[in-house]
């Protein structure tokens, strides 16, 4: 235990070294740049997918609605389920007609009801410490007045010049930066049908993507840069290392920016910044990481998704616990409609998470991994996963906690820790006692229940600690869904 405390002290004593040293365009140099501690402390962020695809907002369940243009123009489809491939094309022709181009959705993307201050307040009330918005998705449409976009496409293809006729990104940047929430910018490296991309990919990267990326970073100064759409070309052809050295050495956010690992084929989980998973269970915590997924299945708003397709508040809270206990962050996505309205069911889920975090945030924010992420029940196989799905559905976490399949174990306790405390978070209220196996505590250790002034009695039994759980009426519980025992060392 003393050794663990010393190591944890050293971890917290390590401060972020800003970009005072000139970084070189090599992975060795780039990967040596530390990730700002605020990101590892944040634990919970909100992802926003919003663009012309939010107007049709249509794709079969189990697929990404923000890929509408790609599904439409390639007559293909991919996701969880079986598809003919022409579902989006058939819907589009029936709804809009053969000659209605995807690019017409630019003028239909009016953002009529968008109020940046209301969005920012929702993010703050949800307990999020950062947000990331799709400034440009794979369709190439920009939420800011990008001359590069107009030049590349030969017609207005940004929110300032068509549709909304507003710099939506600047409005949101200002609103978010007036809160304590960090501002993040998603940026797709590639564009599916950009003429230059189709003609010469490396030329596209150097003559279109690089200057557009620099314009975005220079004028909006994001705290987080979240790149995507990197997989069709190696980092060398994207010239990603050169772009990252500009970001770290010369950009206006050189000393503060945090970025992910999507910089070219083979870079994920290897190079560039924190590691980013998508609809997965998570990583081992040996490197800063983040899991992204939607409240519904689709990242972009999908009118086909019903209430049953949205994760419950309980599911989302357990998902957060699973990720944070493994040293990661959860980036939870919402998809506003084309008018800028965030669906009420998404607002409800975020606000419920915010209420839970008001009670239990101490066990989430600023924590690190303990010597294990959770305690499994003694009997049964671990890590239940559904079969036949490409993307891991959210309800896997219910099967691993409160609704196990026959023969499978459950996660009885999630753990996080700070310098002077271990947090044991249980997804079910224990009946009379909670046994935590293989835990050594100093004789002075004190146990309390977060959200109350209740001291929890405990006894040692061999290598185990047994917490004596008080009998509380439902209205006396400090919160819903999961309960935190703080073990002060």
From TrEMBL:
Domain of life where this protein originates: Bacteria
Annotated GO MF terms: alpha-L-fucosidase activity
Keywords carried by this UniProt record: Glycosidase, Hydrolase, Signal
EC number(s) from the headed UniProt entry: 3.2.1.51
Residue ranges of every copy of the Alpha-L-fucosidase C-terminal domain listed in the record: 411-488
GO biological process, one term: fucose metabolic process
GO cellular component: lysosome
Keyword Lipid biosynthesis set for record: no
EC class (word): hydrolase
Signal peptide: 1-19
Keyword hit for Cytoplasm: no
Annotated site residues (May be important for catalysis) in this chain: 292
Domain Glycoside hydrolase family 29 N-terminal: 13-362
Job of this protein: Alpha-L-fucosidase is responsible for hydrolyzing the alpha-1,6-linked fucose joined to the reducing-end N-acetylglucosamine of the carbohydrate moieties of glycoproteins.
Similarity annotation: Belongs to the glycosyl hydrolase 29 family.
Protein name per its UniProtKB record: alpha-L-fucosidase
Organism: Saccharicrinis carchari
């Amino acid at each position: 235990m003393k050794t663990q405390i010393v190591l944890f002290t050293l971890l917290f004593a390590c401060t972020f070294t800003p970009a005072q040293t000139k970084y070189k365009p090599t992975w060795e140099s780039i990967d040596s740049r530390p990730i700002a501690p605020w990101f590892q402390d944040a634990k919970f962020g909100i992802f926003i997918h919003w663009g012309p695809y939010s107007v049709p907002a249509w794709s079969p369940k189990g697929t990404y609605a923000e890929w509408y243009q790609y599904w439409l123009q390639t007559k293909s489809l991919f996701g969880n389920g079986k598809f003919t491939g022409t579902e989006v094309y058939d819907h589009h022709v029936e709804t809009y007609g053969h000659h209605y181009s995807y690019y017409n959705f630019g003028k239909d993307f009016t953002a009529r009801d968008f109020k940046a201050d209301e969005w920012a307040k929702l993010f703050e009330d949800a307990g999020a410490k950062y947000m990331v918005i799709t400034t440009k998705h794979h369709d190439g449409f920009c939420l800011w007045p990008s001359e590069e976009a107009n030049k590349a496409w030969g017609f207005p293809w940004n929110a300032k010049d068509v549709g909304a006729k507003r710099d939506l990104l600047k409005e949101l940047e200002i609103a978010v930066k007036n809160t304590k929430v960090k501002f993040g910018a998603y940026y797709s490296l590639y564009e599916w049908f950009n003429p230059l991309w189709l003609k010469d990919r490396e030329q596209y990267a150097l003559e279109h993507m690089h200057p557009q990326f620099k314009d975005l970073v220079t004028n909006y100064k994001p705290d987080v840069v979240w790149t995507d759409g990197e997989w069709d070309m190696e980092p060398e052809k994207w010239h990603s290392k050169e772009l990252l050295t500009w970001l770290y050495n010369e950009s206006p956010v050189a000393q503060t920016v945090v970025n992910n690992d999507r910089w070219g084929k083979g870079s994920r989980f290897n190079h560039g910044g924190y590691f980013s998973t998508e609809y997965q269970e998570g990583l081992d915590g040996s490197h800063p990481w983040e899991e992204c997924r939607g409240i519904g299945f689709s990242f972009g708003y999908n009118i086909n998704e019903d209430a049953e397709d949205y994760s419950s508040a309980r599911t989302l809270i357990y998902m957060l616990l699973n990720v944070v206990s493994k040293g990661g962050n959860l980036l939870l996505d919402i998809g506003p409609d084309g008018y800028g309205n965030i669906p009420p069911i998404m607002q409800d889920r975020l606000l419920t998470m915010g209420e839970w975090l008001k009670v239990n945030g101490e066990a989430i924010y600023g924590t690190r991994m303990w010597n294990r992420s959770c305690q499994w029940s003694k009997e049964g196989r671990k890590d239940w996963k559904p079969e036949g799905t490409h993307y891991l559905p959210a309800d896997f976490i219910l099967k691993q906690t409160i609704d196990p399949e026959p023969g499978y174990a459950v996660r009885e306790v999630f753990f996080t820790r700070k310098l002077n405390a271990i947090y044991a978070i249980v997804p079910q209220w224990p009946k009379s006692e909670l046994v935590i196996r293989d835990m050594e505590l100093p004789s002075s250790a004190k146990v309390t229940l977060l959200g109350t002034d209740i001291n929890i009695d405990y006894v040692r039994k061999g290598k185990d600690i047994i917490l004596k759980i008080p009998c509380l009426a439902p209205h006396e519980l400090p919160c819903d869904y999961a309960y935190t025992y703080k073990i002060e060392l």
